[in-house]
Amino acid sequence: MKKLVATIHAPGRLTVLAALLAGLSVPAMAASPNLVISQLYGAGGNNGGVFKNDFIEIFNRGATAFTATGWSVQYASASGTTWQKSSLPSFTVEPGQYVLIQQSPGNDGGQPALPSPLIVPAVMFNMSGTTGKVALVGNDVALTGGTPTGGAIVDFVGFGGATHFEGAVAPGPTTTLSIFRAGGGCADTDNNGADFARAAAAPRTSDAPRNACGGTPVAQPIVLTCPASLAMEQGAGAVAALSATDADSIVNGASITSAPVAGIALAGFTPASAVGGAASVSLQADAGVAPGSYPVAVRFTNDAAQEQSCTVTVNVTGQVAIPQIQGAGATSAFDNMVVVTEGVVTHKVANGYFLQDAAGDGNPATSDGLFVFSPGAVNLGDLMRVRGTITEYRPTGAPRTYTEMKDVTSAVVLSSEHSVTPANIVFDGTLDLAPFEAMLVNINNGLTVNQASFLGSRGELTLAAGRRETATNRYRPGTPEALAMAAANARNSLVLDDSLFTIPTVIPYIDGGRRVVRAGDTVTGLTGVIDYGSIGGGAGFKLQYSVEPSFSATNPRADAPQLASGNIKVASANVLNYFTTFTDGGDAFGATGQGCTLGATASAANCRGADNLAEFERQTRKIVSEMLAIDADVFGLMEIQNNGDIATDYLVRQLNGAVGFPVYAYVPAPAATGTDAIRVSMIYKPARVDLVGGALSDTDSVNTRPPMAQTFRAANGARFSLVVSHMHAKSSCGSGANADLGDGQGCSNLRRTQQATRLADVFIPQIVAAAGDSDVLVMGDLNANSAEDPLYVLTERGLVNQLERFVRPLATPYTYVFNGETGNLDHALATASLNVQMTDAAQWHNNADEPAMIDYNLDGKSAAAVALIEDHAYRAADHDPVLVSMNLPSTISDVSGGFAVLRSGLVQNRITGKISGTVTVTNTSGAPLTGPFQFQFSNLSPGVTVDNASGTRVGVPYITVANASIAPGAKVSFSVVFTNPTRGGITYTPKMLTGSF
Amino acid sequence: MFNFTHIVRQAMLALALAFASAAAAAGPAYLVTIHTSMYSGESGLLDFGFLGDAAATAELVTLSDFSGAFGGEYDRAGGVAGDIPGAVVFSNTGSANFLTQQVVLGGDFTFKISFSGDYAIPADPADAAGLTFVVALFDASLTGLLADLVQFDLLPFNAGEAASVTVTANPDMVEVSGAAAQVPEPSQLLLVLSALALAGAALRRRAPR
Predict the structure, then answer these.
(1) Which of B130, B133, B134 is nearest residue A903 as measured by Cβ atoms?
(2) Which end of chain B is more exposed for a tag (fewer CB within 10 A), N or C?
(3) Closest partner residue to A984 among B95, B98, B133, by Cβ?
(4) What's the ipTM?
(5) Contact (CB, 8 A) for A367 and A323
(6) In a mutagenesis test of the A interface, which of B99, B127, B139, B149 is the best target, namely the one with the most A β-carbons within 10 Å?
């Protein structure tokens, strides 16, 4: 019984399961309309192809309309397992209607475009012309594997040599043949081989005649035949023939539905005489229609209450005055139209000339000038009649376009020796230059050079009314103040250009013996035409000057700044990629075949500095000039080759060589200097400070380059720690929050902010703990302007911005010029305890304001620019150095006055050469003196060393007198051994010091 | 290694100053006798050296009346004038001042030594520098020291203590005896004091009324 019961139950369960499955499958079937792939073509754009793009045609073989939402078409190669996906917008397919989906173009591109309407997915794929797999999928999830079935797949076609298909593989298309589903798309036996056949490619759009499957009648649409445009020469008149048919209705009406244009009308409408017949009408443009471009919408209707529209653009060519071409709008009404116009040649540039309607239209909103993009010989003052195509030229990355004429087919001189009076304008930073496009202007006010970087490479100087500070150098990003300032800056720019558009062989603007024009200098006498196009660093309005402007050196080269007095001076300097290994594989030591290390690889291509020895020697001389002029006790350096201490040591040797004796030494590298090709390093004057312990670095992965820290002790015993940081570049973009968010902070702002947070929260506390001293100075190229997030993070955590403190009250702080705006990328920040010891901070504008043409690089420059390179400190790098001074209170006391010193005579050991003697100190103060003491050999004769010194402080040897106390009148004696390799005698100034040494 | 005995002679100039003597002595003088019988038959080098801190007051050391088996000169440097057996004068001018003379050992060597100058008067009594004259015996190739012989330490006035000459002699080889009285000569110190007095008087006259 038991077994019998079991036997009875088993089929019962299966039945239940089958019923469940059937129930589940009902909605699944309902969700699958009779949409099929009805045609495929993969040779679009291929050599010999008949259309520019590949396409997939979809067809509704069912009896009801269906709206597909969130669908996709997907493609994989014949045996491929990876699917490319084109997401489809929501679309509705009526019964018997086709939908055409465009896919990628090929390389040829000379073929006709696909007919419209069609779906152009945002992401398209490039199908094989002969073999592959295509699926119509009811969702937007990429298929997986080489043989996907079921699930969301609505239809599947494997063709050519495909290894997966429905039933059997469909034939492959060719360059001229597509594959069609039989019956106009109606056949679907789930056998690709049986359902598809090749025929001449003929994509059908949703406007194509509908195809009823299974004898079910469907409502056919009105099918139009309309030209896309109607071209006409003014005065001639023109007619376009339009027609419409409907397979199951009579087309019986036509009308213009767009705004009426005088002289453009429909005429001679003839309705269809029967179902399926053609209705026709003429679109007429009268001879009097003014030149212009007129989109005319024409609607046809039928006796079944259907309608269908098309747009014919009537383009009327003719003579148009320049102010009309320019118009008052942002773009010309004649864009892409051929016109004839007249004007006087006001200026010539390398690739064309400027015409101006000498009379003008008296409307200040319309420009009277036009740039003709047509290199060729023309003469200033000629009145010319030119025929060409008006275009809205958009330079790469430009926010606006510039109306100009191109494709000039006729240029005739009508008469000569005309003159055009320049328009007098005042460029006050708020003037919109658009109404002056291509016009000859006379700027009545003086302007300030805002950037000279591109003087040598492009012949450009960026001008503005006053100097412009980067908005985020003053205001927190995103605030109304920052946005307003950025917008004002954007308006306040006009680039002075030399009409060449190439590297000038003669450097402009430096006539009269001047060797440089600096940002901050002023210029008057600006006359020329208003151009718009590419400029160094972007695109913008330009003045192509026609009269040599007049410059005043209002921001002359200054000597290194003098700081308010203190006892220690620290500076930071970006050394513009100081690499002892060159991009040509050579190095500073004469070797060849060398490389620079970046990450795990070494190659000359990783080197970022000098290309060769000649550039390197120039770089060295310029950097040495800069650093010696600054004369800091400690330097933090950015952009020095990450090759251990080799590059830093080399620079130190050059500095010392230039001085003539050893002034500087380098701080030995910390344990880790990161994997970038550049690092930060420090050098110092051993006669001014001592190193306390070794250098630290923070190798946390958030840091682009590990910041480096070193604790120093001044001659008076006071300690401070310097951190040199070179944060992530603004130009190096990440994704998400590290993309350029358009808030003025550039790319990778989050990364820099994280680096600043790490510096304040982790590294500085480590330094303070290691030094046993809270005086920390942060310097370096933080790649963030003063009000940006990284600086906000640091100042919120108690660091005090020394440039804001000392420089801002006197002048705008900046160390860099970008896009013609000044910004402070290089900083000096002090912890609270050090802040009260700071006495001054300054910047030396020896670099940012100078043209890049005089930096150490020799490549990509004209001979004229190279001839201007000098070994001075100006443009030693692209960033300006930052200097601070501090007055560190002494931690030691000089008690020399309480002692008498008696130095014995000396005895030279004739065998070893050593010289020995005895020093006796006597407490003559009358009171006990508390030790221990350091007997210091101050001003010791050059070259002499104290062999038995206990140590040195800022290079001065001392012997520790360990007595805890010396009573009044008591003597303490100790021996001294000298080495004296010189011919002179030995002497020194004795000092007795106590305190924290 | 030798055990030195110390013969401290009196400090003369400080004493002279204390008593406001009108005529300071030029400095002490001694007769030095060196016995070398323990090196009989050997050749050696007798080295005379004179050195102090460059800030020390200028001083001259005069050696004279040499006797003994002196040979030729081996080496000299710095402030040394004259040749043995004639008078030789050392000055504390250079990085090293020495005269090294070849000798045949076995017999006695004698010479007179006298000091002249103001070693006792430092420019700064709170920071004073002395001078040392030393005589030592080396082997003939100057590669080994045979004996330290005698050392004269001239220490100036300092910390309230009088100037002194300390003579340290090798008791096994050297005898040092005081020499005859010196020829008096005007002290430079007196000149200085006179000048200072005059200067002070001048300043007082120029003081504002």
Answers:
(1) B130
(2) C
(3) B95
(4) 0.81
(5) yes
(6) B127
A985/B132 Cβ within 8 A: no
Q: Kindly report the CA angle at A602 between A601 and A605, in degrees rounded to 5?
A: 110
Integer angstrom CA distances of residue B137 from A51, B47, B103, B109, B141: 113, 6, 9, 12, 11
- Chain pair A-B, CB pairs under 8 angstroms: 101
Name residue A267's beta-bridge partners: A282
With tokens 């090294």, the residue in question is B100
What strands, in cross-sheet order, belong to the sheet with B164-169? B5-8, B164-169, B145-155, B131-139, B43-52, B98-104, B70-77
Give the confidence band of A162 by pLDDT, cuts at 50, 70, 90.
very high
Which one, of A659, A640, A660, lies nearest residue A650 by Cα? A640
pLDDT tier for residue B26 given thresholds of 50, 70 and 90:
low
CA A236, distance to chain mean position in Å, is 51
Nearest CB to B158; choose among A900, A910, A982: A900
Nearest residue in A to B119, CA atom: A905
B155 in contact with A at a CB cutoff of 8 Å? yes
Q: What is the pLDDT of residues B154-202, one digit of tens each?
A: 999 999 899 999 999 999 999 999 844 343 343 444 443 444 344 344 3
For A982, nearest residue in chain B (alpha carbons): B95
- A660 has a chain B CB within 8 A of its CB: no
The tens digit of pLDDT for each residue in A919-933 reads 999 999 999 999 899
Provide φ and ψ at A488, rounded to 5°: -65, -40
Give the residue from A137, A132, A138 showing the smallest Cα distance to A192: A132
Say whether residue A985 is in contact with chain B using an 8 A CB cutoff. Answer: yes
B156 and A902 in contact by Cβ < 8 A?
yes
Using CA atoms of A679, A683, A689, A693 in order, give the dihedral in degrees to the nearest 10.
40
Mutation pick from A894, A895, A910 vs chain B, by most beta carbons of B within 10 Å, is A910
* Distances in whole angstroms, Cα of residue A728 to Cα of each of A469, A703, A708, A815, A919: 22, 8, 15, 17, 57
Cβ-defined contact of A924 to B159 (cutoff 8 Å): yes
Question: In the block, which residue shows the tokens 């450097």?
Answer: A507
Q: What is the least distance, in Å, from the CA of B67 to any CA of chain A?
A: 24
Chain B: residue nearest A907 by CA?
A: B51
Rounded to an integer, what distance in angstroms lies between the CA atom of residue A217 and that of residue A195? Answer: 22
In angstroms, what separates the C-alpha of A991 from chain B's closest C-alpha? 10
Contact B121, B188 (CB under 8 A): yes
- Indicate whether this model's pTM tops 0.80: no
Contacts of A901 in chain B (CB under 8 A): 126-128, 158
Relative orientation angle of helices A789-796 and A749-758, to the nearest 10 degrees:
20
Which candidate, A496, A490, A539, places its Cα nearest to that of A521? A496
The terminus-to-terminus CA distance of chain B in angstroms comes to: 68
| Nearest residue on chain B to A902, alpha-carbon basis | B128
Q: Compute the 3-state secondary structure of chain A and give helix, strand, coil in percent, each to the nearest 5.
A: 15, 35, 50
CA proximity to B127, closest of B195, B54, B25: B54
8 A C-beta contact, residue A526 and residue A447? yes
Edge to edge, what strands does the sheet with A251-256 contain? Answer: A229-233, A307-317, A292-302, A251-256
Residue with tokens 């590669």: B143
Query: What secondary structure letter does DSSP report for A992?
Result: E
Whether B56 contacts chain A with CB within 8 A: yes
Q: What residues of B are in contact with residue A983 (Cβ under 8 Å)?
A: 94-95
Q: Name A37's Cβ contacts closer than 8 Å, sequence gap at least 6.
A: A56, A57, A58, A59, A134, A136, A155, A157, A181
Q: What is the largest CA-CA distance in chain B?
A: 80
Of B136, B138, B154, the CB nearest to A905: B154
